[in-house]
Write a structure and sequence with these properties.
The structure is a homodimer.
Chain A: H1 3-8, H2 14-21, H3 25-33, E1 40-41, E2 47-48, H4 51-65, H5 70-90, H6 95-115
Antiparallel strand pairs in A: 1-2
Chain A binds a DNA duplex (30 and 30 nucleotides) through helix 3.
Pfam families (chains A, B): MerR_1
Protein name (chains A, B): MerR family glutamine synthetase transcriptional repressor
GO molecular function (chains A, B): DNA binding; DNA-binding transcription factor activity
Chain lengths: ~130, ~130
DNA sequence: AACATATGTTATTTTTCCTCACATAACATT
DNA sequence: AATGTTATGTGAGGAAAAATAACATATGTT
């Protein structure tokens, strides 16, 4: 399982995210409402957050603290998403790499089925976990 | 924050651990009762599991599936713990490393305070996260 | 002044998790 | 064969966490 995938896996309940980010539940839900994050939902409709979500929230917090508003944060995120796509598009990969990736995707699918959430979210940026 | 610490940080609710390990809540609590794992507890008395806990549970599952009983699993774990201690004892570290470790410990303490759980658990073995 | 933004607060309902107790299949022991 | 042990299932009852929704509000904007 790739590190990126692990970081994108929805695992944490909102209570943990609150502690890790020092944000209130209200804030976290508000940011979601404005599409800055898109946490997965459990069968029972509970939000489940990935480590990527936590990263995003920490960054949202910082940007807001810098006086940037929600719209600004969204812009920043959208720009990053685009640039990631652009930079990713260029790389060509070897056959072996491709096979490795496929193997991972398959495993991902299996785990995702087990974890069975209504929607995940895409990796945003990768630091250390 | 060190990888080991991150893996030892209690983050996941039992529902997620159930899905990741394919164990029932009953099984997970039973293994805890027998001291094979020691998940942290939230203020509200909910079990919170670390990635290390998940690793341990996966291994418990495998060992049990191999016909080994709980006592046997415990033995295996205890043996490993001892050998880890032994191998760790020998290494001597540089000043810089020591300072880096201390810095991390401090950050750990801060986060731990935020996460404020009644008890964590020690890293057991470290694979990839 | 009126409006918008970001967040707090509170009420209500639903979901998740806890403990405890009892049940039981598969093995082991007497 | 009867009894005990181990590992797990199941269900009741209760507590905690989280959801939605509505109203409140400080600060900044037009």
């Amino acid at each position: 399982m790739s590190r990126e995938f692990r970081r994108a896996m929805p695992l944490l309940p909102i209570s943990m995210v609150m502690k890790l980010t020092e944000l209130s539940a209200r804030q976290i839900r508000y940011y979601e409402e404005h599409k800055l994050i898109e946490p997965a939902k459990s069968e029972g409709n509970r939000r489940m957050f990935s480590l990527d979500d936590v990263d995003a929230l920490l960054e949202i917090r910082d940007l807001l603290n810098q006086g940037i508003n929600i719209a600004g944060v969204k812009k920043v995120f959208d720009m990053r998403k685009k640039s990631v796509v652009k930079s990713t598009n260029k790389v060509s990969i070897s056959d072996a790499e491709l096979r490795a990736i496929l193997r991972e995707e398959i495993q991902q699918a299996q785990i995702m089925e087990k974890v069975s959430l209504r929607n995940g979210d895409l990796p945003r940026h990768k630091d250390e976990i």
